[in-house]
Amino acid sequence: MLYRNCVLLLLLISPVISWASSFSADSIGTERRNGETYVLHQVDQGETLFSVSRRYGVTIQEIKELNPEIDINQLSIGDTLRAPLFSDLSRGEKTLHTVAEGETLYRLAKQYEVTTDNIRAWNTLGLEPLKIGQVIVIYQPQPEEELPDPERYVLHEVKEGETLYAISRAYQVGVSELMERNDLETESINLGQVLTIREKNPVPVPVVKVEPTVSTVSTPTRRVSRSEALRIEKERYERIQREEAETLASYKKVTSNGFASVIEGKLNTKKFLALHRSAPIGTILRVRNEMNDMSIFVRVVGKLPDTGVNNNLEIRLTQSAYDKLGGINERFPAEITYVE
Fold first, then answer.
1. What CATH class is the domain 144-198?
2. Among candidate residues 133, 151, 123, the one with its CA nearest the CA of residue 9
3. Label partner for 214 (CA 20 to 30 A): which of 16, 25, 182, 232?
4. CATH classification for the domain delimited by 2-8+17-140, as one of 3.40.190.10, 3.90.650.10, 3.10.350.10, 3.30.565.10
């Protein structure tokens, strides 16, 4: 019965959550804990903490926090780890609510400004009614910051194995400068995180003025002319441009055109998410509305199902992303760009 309810619930909220991310082939069941349902994953040969976190779409730190009784740094074959059942929906401020007499799903959804579908998903309720004294979990989403303007800033998406120090060396920007620009408290960065490197506009040429120095010994003073200062700055800027071009050349740019529409079903999120035909899950896409030339960045959270309703569609977007692009019709022509 629980299995059938989970299937029905997944049909209600897919296409945002893929079956693969909610129940992997090697999952051994679920566990109810502190008002929330978790997938139980049994560690297999060759698996690491990183690979498990990627499988379930969570961070390594979240895996550590959910499994305090396991020595995460010494994983062994057969260890059982918890992971969120619906990782993409389980974000924001978490509240454990004890159901009181007379409370319904609709009333709680209004109280916490979420949807009844999400409450059912977070608690794997299926079609069962609430019970007095039942503890359920509710997430209230926090506003998501928009990505910086790619036309103004040089951006870098963190790849597997990259460190903040390595990125700073590649772009010749100080680590402290990167931390300050991206509001980082530590040098820790996450896979897929988008970092702002610097503004694209060249730094203005400084006017070099040599002040006279007081000295008892007469020494020649070399004055830097404006033409020489311009030459030095031009060479520095050209070197930076070459290094950026070499870095970008190592990535393959993919561009496609097609129609964009809204993800079907109710999804209470302000995140800019998308379902795409071919881009891997986690990819950052630049989507441009060809009717008004507006652009945003979105993250792929699933594959666009190859069904009749999606014929002639290239991408589906969350309502917030669709509205941000100025979509007023059922669909609009879009240009999609990303790097592999």
1. alpha beta
2. 123
3. 232
4. 3.10.350.10
